[in-house]
Amino acid sequence: MELIYFTLAAIVLYIVSDKIVLTIERKRGERLQNRSVIFFFIIITLTIISFSIIQSLYEKPVSETPQTEQPQNAPATETKSQ
Q: d(Cα 35, Cα 81) in Å, to the nearest integer?
């Protein structure tokens, strides 16, 4: 299920990043020279933020993670010689 969320997020991020670049170009009144570089920085920033959020939602709480059995130290017994 997590894979589906990452895939949907990637599609949405692509569309949102494209809209942001188009909005910047519309406000400037001309096409950006390095459009692909600007698009890359926008999408990578949004991707890091959104994927971190998705990943944090799927992390298991500490109490649910299986714990390995740790050997218990037996108390040292002293033998008394008589």
A: 87
